[in-house]
């Protein structure tokens, strides 16, 4: 319907790789369209055009009114630029303002007469298909049905529209529906520019089906890519999509129905003789009849696999049963599935989340992922911006299976239960003989080590000396030599990190802690005794960091002019402005000294690309001001001393009670040795991560200097572009002075999409997310169950905080958040208890909570959604659950 000249494609700069057509082409037949033309006909139109090209797939005939027609209408709308400017400045939560302005824009668009040449192109296309046929008029936005954003249901569809005048009117309504309240809010929340999203319209012959529904080629509940899910109801699919009826549900795997549930279907939507649609009550005798035969279900699933193979990813497909054949009226990518780590073989794999162990479940950028993979053992796999380890070989071998289940289950019971669920299936994990190939040797307990504080001191001094040498030696390196130097230095990092003596220290502390909890409960009925015994231990760099910020507040508190200045700080260069204020030099020196020691830290610090406190010192300002407000001078030192006294008092009490038991002297002597061991060594548990993060920061500063050279040479557009390259890719860019700009754009787009995904604890190579459960019946009804990591029971106000920079805490608050890595520890001094969604017995939040004497429960699934900010809750840190109080 367009001339070859009009249909000439030009490449756009869009990160999705979309192409656009030259203007003034207002109508394209579906047969002329393929999936490259999203910018011309929108996501829905492009997918329908592509579907019509697949052999054996039937698509109702139709055409698209292209985005050029929409742009023409927008150009004729009065004051549209001003309105779009106002719309882009709105907050996504300002519903009233969005409702008012979007309605104003819709009225304007619907009131504009369709230009004669556009109307003529549409009526000519209708004449070819049949003017008096019934049509479905469907919006198709240019940012719709993309691999990373579906926009499903954001714009409007009109069914059973008859006659050219009615069709033209409904095309206008579809254009206007780009500015429904829900569509505008979706774009604001997902960062889409209103000016860059245009509206095409699909005009497609209606089909009048016996049954219709939705086919997911991956199970939308479990995410299993090998299980298709079919939902079916009588009549048009709108009854199902709008939630009016319950649908029949089938699960199909490898050509067989593996589960089915036939619903009672009381209503159906059918075409109305007068146009539009109407609800009809289904005859009671038919209500419990299946909408499809089982043979039809299997045939439909097979069609879905053909469509999925064509598009290369799982699909959400809308279908209609007409006669005994299926008509496909839409297919879009499923955007909510968590990606599967890439494997080099077709065998089964079981992936366990690294982020849930490291207390950092946010996505990481490619450079951060790459460096983490170079640094860590064992091998890690990437998916959705997160890292996973494959544990299937360990689970397959009887020699290692028990150890893996025990270690992971103790760290995170939900991971342990998920792995047990997979094992109980019998058909997923291969069974290896004890000495079979691939079976890892049994993990031995750490070698004996004496309880000597000098060992910890020596380990820390050696790490500090190594980091100091790195800082000296890296200064002279640039270009390829810098990348070679860092790659070689990573081996030094790994040598220190995996030093057997270092491993002996923190494993010895963990073993002693476990022994104390087990034996003292057995002998004295004392739960989690190690929690109190490990308060205020030496060498804990993370807890010292929180207390040190109290000392910074002590320096600033006497200077009201500095306090007032900090309350309005926004510029990262604020430290330089302090010099002119009374008390400013002292404040600057205190903050500077803190940054010298801890400035390499930040939220999500295992990702080298995250901005560090030294790079964004404003992050610390709210914490300092909170400490000034909530604490008294000297509270840092007093808190540490109070914790030390409580630990000593608990130790003396326990030993006294033990000596009163039969064989008490021996039990007390054993216990004393374990207490000494855990108090000497447990603080070092936090040091290896501090060492890694310190070293990463040195790498980062050097790499950013190199990136600046690449910017000056016009190789990169901005320094931070290196964050979207892997380490080997960055090495190639430095060597060749050439970069793939499109790859960087695609990586940025992918990273934004990963931020919307929730990473699973356990994922199989079939894409199935295995959700573990807590197996407990000793908690009150309605309680939120987690893992007890620091004892005590408290009531308080829940503060649900997802961004540390927005924390506004009062003494006595209970912090509820997704995870806490070491950077959160300065907040711990101001709270009364801790609840997190991720974490285990020895993750950083748990260790610091015990040291500060804070009751804590971690691993509480969906805590930040189930607990509302400001609610009163009761936290049972000893027993591992949270109650929401009236």
SSE map:
Elements: E1 9-11, E2 19-21, E3 27-29, H1 38-51, E4 62-65, H2 67-76, H3 80-88, H4 95-110, H5 116-129, E5 134-141, E6 157-162, H6 164-176, H7 181-190, E7 199-205, E8 211-216, E9 227-234, H8 238-241, E10 248-253, E11 256-261, E12 267-271, E13 277-281, H9 294-311, E14 315-322, E15 325-333, E16 350-353, H10 355-358, H11 366-375, E17 381-383, E18 386-390, H12 392-396, H13 398-411, H14 413-423, H15 453-474, H16 479-497, H17 500-524, H18 530-533, H19 541-556, H20 560-566, H21 574-577, H22 584-598, H23 621-630, H24 635-659, H25 664-681, H26 687-712, H27 727-736, H28 741-754, E19 762-764, E20 784-785, E21 787-790, E22 793-800, E23 813-817, H29 825-828, E24 831-836, H30 844-852, E25 856-858, H31 863-866, E26 872-876, E27 881-884
Helix pairs in contact: 3-4, 4-6, 13-14, 15-26, 16-26, 16-27, 17-25, 19-22, 19-23, 19-24, 24-25
């Amino acid at each position: 319907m367009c001339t070859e000249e009009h249909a000439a494609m030009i490449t756009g700069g869009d990160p999705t790789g979309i192409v656009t057509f030259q203007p003034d082409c207002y109508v394209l037949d579906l047969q002329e369209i393929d999936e490259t033309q999203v910018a011309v006909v929108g996501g829905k139109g492009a997918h329908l055009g592509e579907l019509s090209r697949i052999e054996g797939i039937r698509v109702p005939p139709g055409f698209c009114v292209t985005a050029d027609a929409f742009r023409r209408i927008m150009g004729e709308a009065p004051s549209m630029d001003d309105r779009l400017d106002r719309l882009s400045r709105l907050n996504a939560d300002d519903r009233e303002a969005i409702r008012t302005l979007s309605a104003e824009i819709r009225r304007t668009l619907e009131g504009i007469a369709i230009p004669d040449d556009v109307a003529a192109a549409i009526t000519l296309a209708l004449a070819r298909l049949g003017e008096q046929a019934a049509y479905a008029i469907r919006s198709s936005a240019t940012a719709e049905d993309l691999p990373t954003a579906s926009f499903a249901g954001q714009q409007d569809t009109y069914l059973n529209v008859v006659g050219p005048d009615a069709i033209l009117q409904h095309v206008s309504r579809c254009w206007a529906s780009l500015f429904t309240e829900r569509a505008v809010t979706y774009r604001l929340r997902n960062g889409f520019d209103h000016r860059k999203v245009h509206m095409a319209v699909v005009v497609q012959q209606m089909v009048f089906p016996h049954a219709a529904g939705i086919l997911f080629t991956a199970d939308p509940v479990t995410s299993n890519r090998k299980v298709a899910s079919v939902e079916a109801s009588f009549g048009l699919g709108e009854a199902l999509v709008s939630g009016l009826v319950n649908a029949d549900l089938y699960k199909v795997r490898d050509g067989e129905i593996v589960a089915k549930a036939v619903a009672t279907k009381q209503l159906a939507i059918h075409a109305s003789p007068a146009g539009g649609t109407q609800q009809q009550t289904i005859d009671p005798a038919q209500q419990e009849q299946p909408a499809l035969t089982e043979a039809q279900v299997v045939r439909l699933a097979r069609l879905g696999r053909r469509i999925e193979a064509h598009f290369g990813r799982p699909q959400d497909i809308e279908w209609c049963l007409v006669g005994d054949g299926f008509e496909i009226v839409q297919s879009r990518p499923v955007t909510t599935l968590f990606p599967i780590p890439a494997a080099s073989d077709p065998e089964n794999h079981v992936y366990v989340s690294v982020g849930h162990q490291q207390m950092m479940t946010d996505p990481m950028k490619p450079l951060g992922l790459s460096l983490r993979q170079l640094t860590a053992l064992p091998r890690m796999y990437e998916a959705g911006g997160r890292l996973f380890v494959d544990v299937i070989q360990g689970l397959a071998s009887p020699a290692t299976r028990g150890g893996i289940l025990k270690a992971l289950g103790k760290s995170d019971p939900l991971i342990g239960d998920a792995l047990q669920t997979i094992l109980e299936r019998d058909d997923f994990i291969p069974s290896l003989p004890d000495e079979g190939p691939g079976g890892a040797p049994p993990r031995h307990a750490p070698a004996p080590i004496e309880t000597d504080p000098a060992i910890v001191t020596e380990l820390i001094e050696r790490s500090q000396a190594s980091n100091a040498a790195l800082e000296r030696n890296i200064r002279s390196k640039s270009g390829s030599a810098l990348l070679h130097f860092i790659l070689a230095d990573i081996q030094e990092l790994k040598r220190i990190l995996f030093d057997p003596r270092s491993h002996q220290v923190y494993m010895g502390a963990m073993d002693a802690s476990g022994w104390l909890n087990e034996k003292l409960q057995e002998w004295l009925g004392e739960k989690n005794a190690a929690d109190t015994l490990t308060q205020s231990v030496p060498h804990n760099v993370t807890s010292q960091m929180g207390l040190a910020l109290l000392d910074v507040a002590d320096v600033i508190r006497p200077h009201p002019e500095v306090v007032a200045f900090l309350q309005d700080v926004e510029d990262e260069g604020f430290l330089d402005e302090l010099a002119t204020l009374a008390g400013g030099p002292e404040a600057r020196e205190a903050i500077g000294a803190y940054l010298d020691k801890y400035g390499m830290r930040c939220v999500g610090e295992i990702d080298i690309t995250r901005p560090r406190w030294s790079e964004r010192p404003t992050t610390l300002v709210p914490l300092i001001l909170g400490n000034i407000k909530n604490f008294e001078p000297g509270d840092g030192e007093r808190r540490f001393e109070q914790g030390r006294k409580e630990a000593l008092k608990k130790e003396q009490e326990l030993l006294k009670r033990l000596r009163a038991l039969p064989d008490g002297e021996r039990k007390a002597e054993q216990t004393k040795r374990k207490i000494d061991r855990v108090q000497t060594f447990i603080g070092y548990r936090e040091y290896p991560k501090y060492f890694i993060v310190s070293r990463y920061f040195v790498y980062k500063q050097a790499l950013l200097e190199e990136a600046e050279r690449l910017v000056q040479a016009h190789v990169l557009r901005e320094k931070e572009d290196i964050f979207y390259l892997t380490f080997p890719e960055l090495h190639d860019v430095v060597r060749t002075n050439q970069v793939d700009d499109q790859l960087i754009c695609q990586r940025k787009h992918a990273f934004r999409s990963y931020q919307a995904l929730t990473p699973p604890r356990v994922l199989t190579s079939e894409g199935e997310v295995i959700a573990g459960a807590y197996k407990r019946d000793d908690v009150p009804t309605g309680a939120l169950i987690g893992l007890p990591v620091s004892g005590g029971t408290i009531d308080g106000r829940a503060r649900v905080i997802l961004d540390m920079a927005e924390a506004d805490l009062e003494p006595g608050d209970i912090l509820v958040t997704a995870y806490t890595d070491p950077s959160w520890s300065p907040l711990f001094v101001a709270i009364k208890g801790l609840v997190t969604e991720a974490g285990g017995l020895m993750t950083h939040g748990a260790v610091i909570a015990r040291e500060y004497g804070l009751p804590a429960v971690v691993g509480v699934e969906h805590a930040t959604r189930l607990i509302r900010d400001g609610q009163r809750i009761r936290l049972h840190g000893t027993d591992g659950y949270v109650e929401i109080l009236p």
